[in-house]
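Lab notebook, design round three. We kept the backbone fixed and only want residue identities now. Task for the bench partner: fill in a sequence for the structure below.
Input structure tokens:
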């Protein structure tokens, strides 16, 4: 459940007295017998999270003693709104929602390209009155000339809530001034996805300029993190927030137990939280050669706090970065992904976490954890794909390695790609990378990603392959000898914006030896989730590309504002930039020879037509647990926005 002020789109509205801070008293039944009460306090232009709520009815009492009740209805998975498009006078703007980021894809009918010399993109963030320019890169605080292209990624502060409004103008320049020819306005709700699945990414590698150290020294393990707290929140992004919230939830609930599988682990605050959980925590530490002479001080402290500590590895590693919450002994929630519990992983690498609240998935991971506690080198029967079938989740499967089933499935998905393949992989993923390379130029599929190597990042985009050497400053930040800039967030996403989009993500390395690593991977078929990972891949590509272009700007290699040569590749049928424009904007322009009143068709129009041909039954609103809700007030009248028209549910 999330409470916000001002109210979010499609939310239930209640009247709250203007106290400072705002106050709500929440009451529900937890675990079938215990009445839970919690006071929620929050200020204007902010949100307050309350979860989990294990009850069919929630009572909400305001400071005026008005009482509202929220009833849970049918449980279902509702696809989040992840894209929006606006078309005007032969110009189109499509927005895609990412994690604290918006992908802006532009397009123009070819007959209108004479009206374009450059684009100007302005954004009005939630709660702001003024619009700010988006399409200007920055280096050390100095604005550089706009980069002209048909797509841009707008990065936002973590946990931004509400509607982001965009104004995109096509400008035609002459010798004296820039003439605004057409302006398209549109908006998208950037509120983080909340529900049965939550997704987060680290932000460290995207921060420009010199960075100070993130801990006192190379060997520092137990230190006061207070002086680093603000930077941890910035660099850790939503991944750090979700991880710390998950751990705090287990710490603050005496009925919760926490099972942990940790590959790398050196964050002092996480260690202290684990110690505070004490006897309610069990942990498996990797004892492969990678950690054979490490983590003994960590093990001693955990044991002294009453935690149960196990050391093991599978055929190669115990590579998972896993938290399993159990309530009253029953597995209920899982946090997995590529993010280790370490300073390096959280604040200097590209990484992701996935929080999934589902008992069936929790049971699968709990079985995996038990095998690790036994010291088993095999994880059968979980070394084959297990379907997670629940109305509160999208279509998904989980695979626990060691297993030989990962490579064939991912390679098959790559072979079947119709529109796009975006990825973040290590250079040990040779077979998958070879499959991706085989899908390139001739087939007009949008392909790109970053390959993380010990030599740096290989950025692959539009047929180019550029090596970006490691930034030595980042190694100084974390006190790490190696790996601080090589990245760790491994994933593959295919046809991200399509109904049959598929994502592969988790702790898996996707290497040719992935049958030996001792990790986990999730297959999720949902375009709203796949789009978040696709935008993350594009952010990586752009980040490293801009690092290279910045040097060119500083050398004066900047095209003049009247130079329109940048447009030509976007309209050359054989140029990958042309496919990029068409695939990302996803606009079907009418034939130039057709009548002028024909309107372009979009994917949304086609979907609306399909929906209108089918009978649809309205449902209630969705809460953070993936359940529909219906609110009623007992004392005074509640105000509520009109429900949106029903959409297809997956």
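Proposed sequence:
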């Amino acid at each position: 459940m999330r409470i916000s002020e001002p109210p979010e789109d499609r939310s239930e509205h209640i009247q709250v007295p203007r106290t400072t801070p705002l106050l709500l008293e929440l009451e529900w039944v937890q675990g079938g017998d215990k009445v839970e009460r919690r006071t929620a306090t929050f200020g204007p232009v902010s949100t307050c999270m309350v979860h989990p709520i294990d009850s069919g009815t929630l009572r909400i009492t305001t400071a005026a003693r008005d009482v509202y009740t929220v009833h849970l209805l049918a449980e279902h998975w509702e696809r989040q709104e992840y894209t929006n498009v606006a078309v005007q006078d032969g110009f189109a703007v499509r927005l895609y929602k990412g994690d604290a980021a918006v992908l802006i894809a532009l397009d123009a009918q070819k007959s209108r390209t004479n009206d374009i010399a450059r684009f100007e993109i302005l954004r009005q963030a939630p709660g702001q009155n003024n619009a700010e320019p988006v399409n200007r890169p920055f280096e050390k605080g100095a604005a550089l000339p706009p980069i002209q292209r048909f797509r841009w990624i707008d990065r936002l502060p973590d946990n931004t809530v509400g509607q982001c409004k965009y104004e995109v103008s096509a400008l035609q320049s002459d010798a004296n001034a820039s003439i605004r020819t057409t302006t398209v306005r549109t908006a998208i709700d950037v509120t983080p996805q909340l529900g049965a699945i939550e997704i987060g990414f680290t932000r460290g590698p995207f921060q420009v300029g010199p960075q100070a150290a993130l801990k006192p020294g190379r060997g520092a393990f137990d230190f006061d993190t207070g002086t680093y707290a603000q930077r941890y929140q910035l660099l850790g992004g939503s991944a750090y927030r979700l991880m710390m919230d998950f751990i705090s939830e287990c710490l603050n609930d005496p009925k919760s137990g926490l099972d942990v599988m940790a590959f790398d682990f050196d964050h002092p605050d996480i260690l202290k939280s684990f110690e505070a959980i004490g006897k309610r925590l069990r942990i498996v530490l990797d004892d492969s050669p990678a950690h054979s002479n490490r983590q003994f001080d960590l093990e001693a402290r955990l044991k002294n706090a009453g935690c149960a500590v196990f050391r093991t590895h599978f055929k190669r590693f115990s590579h998972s970065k896993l938290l399993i919450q159990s309530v009253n002994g029953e597995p209920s929630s899982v946090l997995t992904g590529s993010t280790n519990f370490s300073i390096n992983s959280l604040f200097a690498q590209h990484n992701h976490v996935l929080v999934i609240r589902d008992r069936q998935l929790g049971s699968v991971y709990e079985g995996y954890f038990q095998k690790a506690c036994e010291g088993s080198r095999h994880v059968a029967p979980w070394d084959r794909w297990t379907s997670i079938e629940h109305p509160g989740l999208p279509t998904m499967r989980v695979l626990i390695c060691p297993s030989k089933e990962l490579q064939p499935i991912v390679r098959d998905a790559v072979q079947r790609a119709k529109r796009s393949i975006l990825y973040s992989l290590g250079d040990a993923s040779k077979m998958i990378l070879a499959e991706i390379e085989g899908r390139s130029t001739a087939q007009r599929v949008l392909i790109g990603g970053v390959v993380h190597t010990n030599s740096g990042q290989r950025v692959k985009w539009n047929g180019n392959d550029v090596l970006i050497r490691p930034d030595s400053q980042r190694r100084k930040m974390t006190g790490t000898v190696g790996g601080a800039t090589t990245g760790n967030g491994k994933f593959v996403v295919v046809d991200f914006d399509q109904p049959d989009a598929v994502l592969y993500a988790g702790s898996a390395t996707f290497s040719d030896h992935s049958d030996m690593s001792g990790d986990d991977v999730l297959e999720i078929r949902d375009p709203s989730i796949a789009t978040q990972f696709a935008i993350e891949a594009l952010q990586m590509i752009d980040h490293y590309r801009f690092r290279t272009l910045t040097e060119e700007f500083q050398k004066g290699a900047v095209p003049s504002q009247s130079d329109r040569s940048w447009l030509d590749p976007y309209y050359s049928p054989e140029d990958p930039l042309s496919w990029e424009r068409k695939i990302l904007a996803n606009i079907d322009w009418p034939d130039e020879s057709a009548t002028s009143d024909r309107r372009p068709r979009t994917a949304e129009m086609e979907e609306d037509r399909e929906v209108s041909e089918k009978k649809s039954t309205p449902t209630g609103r969705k809460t953070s647990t993936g359940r529909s809700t219906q609110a009623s007030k007992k004392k005074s009248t509640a105000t509520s926005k009109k429900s949106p028209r029903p959409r297809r549910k997956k």
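Keep this in mind before ordering anything: The CA atoms of residues 586 and 603 lie 7 Å apart.
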